[in-house]
Amino acid sequence: MSFYRTIIRWHDQLTVVGYYLACAALAIIFGAYVIEVFARYFFNAPQWWASEAVSYSLCAGTFLMMPYVTWKKGHVAVALIFDMLPRNGAKVALWLTYLLGTLACGFAAWITMEETIRQYVNNVHLMAVKPVPKYIVSVFIPFGFASSTLHFMRLMDFKTIDPDNIGSGFSEG
User: Fold this and answer.
1) C-alpha atoms less than 13 angstroms from C-alpha of 41 in its C-beta half-sphere
2) Are 34 and 131 in contact (CB under 8 A)?
3) Distance (Å, rounded) from C-alpha 116 to C-alpha 51?
4) Where are the domains of the chain?
5) Which of 39, 93, 127, 162 has the least CB density, counted as fewest CB within 10 Å?
6) How far apart are CA 59 and CA 65, in angstroms?
7) pLDDT digits (tens, 9 = 90+) for 89-114
């Protein structure tokens, strides 16, 4: 059981690291836009890299943040459905929701990992001012889906499902 707890602790720490990297990606997006606006409109010197930095950071930030949102149950929840059901029915419905999340994210992780590997093997590059290997950007997509899959699997522990704590957001520690 301690091995299982160690794996969970590592997964949680990796999720927190992803959270902070996603925050850094947001800072890069903000900084690139500010630099681009000032360079373009005040110095008439548009920056070639700003648009690319924003799009790459947006992809990375989204899929680095995704596991954290799943872990903290910050995903969108239509709680009315669960509120209308009796407590045990709501627990079953939540378990089924987590199962569907597990299956959907697991399938998406598999598909996107195959595509990322294909991009690496075939040396596919992004069409940009400075072409970069596409897998460097897209590797964040299977990471986000795979890590979210593990979080959904952990949420499926029927004993710990609390219908009163649906979509609790980020209030947990």
Assistant:
1) 6
2) no
3) 22
4) 2-165
5) 127
6) 10
7) 888 988 999 999 999 999 999 999 99
